[in-house]
């Protein structure tokens, strides 16, 4: 078992100069373009009960760039656990991973976050007259793009590797395993309409 940085560096050596140079403390023009193109971001946070990674998705550009040091993410309806928001109130450190369909490179952003319910800010994210309950404001401390190797190895964007939905348990089946009396068939049958009705 490795227990020190020195042991790790003995195995891996030092990062290439370009891997270090690509990290900057703000969003330059290229990194801003990646944020605007991304319809999906995964937010990592830490709280008193442990760690959390939460996916957030919407139309490309749903994460707004207020300036080169500040991002704003609306909190759309979800499962109401609000794990990320609870964590941010305890520990403001967050990590964001922006994913762009069909593109191998991803964008990593680390920083600190605040939760806002300021009315004018909520209005910026209205969809069909519906406002998010809160907006997460992220102060950028480090930003860098991640190379495409993980996407290439996984063949994530290769449609020939996409799985049929029946390959893994349905949401209803997962609920039923946790609660034998749960009506999995009805839940799965009603899911598409329920999801569409509660997107915003």
TrEMBL record:
InterPro entries: Pyridox_Oxase_FMN-dep, Pyridox_Oxase_N, Split_barrel_FMN-bd
A UniProt-annotated Pfam family: PNPOx_N
Protein name as annotated: Pyridoxamine 5'-phosphate oxidase
Domain of life: Bacteria
Record-annotated Pyridoxamine 5'-phosphate oxidase N-terminal domain positions: 28-147
NCBIfam families per the UniProt record, alphabetical: PPOX_FMN_DR2398
Gene3D superfamilies associated with the record: Electron Transport, Fmn-binding Protein, Chain A
Organism from which the protein derives: Pseudomonas frederiksbergensis
